[in-house]
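Hi, here's the filled form for the chain we discussed.

Project: internal
Contact: R.S.
Residues: 226
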Amino acid sequence: MIEFKNVSRVYPGDCIALRDIDFSIKPKEFVSIVGRSGAGKTTLLKLLLREEQPTEGEVVVDGKDIRDLRSKEIPIYRRKIGSIFQDFKLLPNKTAYENIAFAMEAGGRSDEEIAEDVPQILNLVELSDKADNFPCQMSGGEKQRVAIGRALVHKPDILMADEPTGNLDPLHTWDIIRLLCRINELGTTVILATHDREIVNALGRRVISFDKGRLIRDEEKGRYIV
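And the returned structure, exactly as it came back:
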């Protein structure tokens, strides 16, 4: 369970990114967070990832206010959350296999675990035949699937996607959305932040709409009408 309880985030100069936000997300939900640029979507995700702290209010995950996490607890907490972004953030000198394996190595996983899990992850994201390809040899959609695979290495409870299709053409966009839906069906909570109206309206899932830092709409089977 994720809960934002009366959360506000104010930056220096009295710049209000979020104002009095209050909502919850149940385990295994697929939720789209929508709004124009500057609406507060990215700030919301940074708060959930504990990259920033709310100026007021509480962000509660699995019953714990994450403001209370000690420094050494934050990396452990973040393993619960897989993150993907618009710009992929792949290591250019490593293959698809090595990009995923590197994330596991950084998390302290053994060589045996890596050898067992990476092929399974590549299969899940439908890139088994691209295991030895470098990012420069892959399409944008394939790069994003590698990034999703890397985000899944710690078997996170939550997958957080910040504009994951922003750099993709329509064909690859829908490949990524179908993959996110499949991951959700396997039991992972998916939070999709996007301003792509067509995607949100086609999904027919829960939509939380933001405008100028305020939550203006929360619908179980919503549409992007901001």
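Let me know if anything looks off before we file it.
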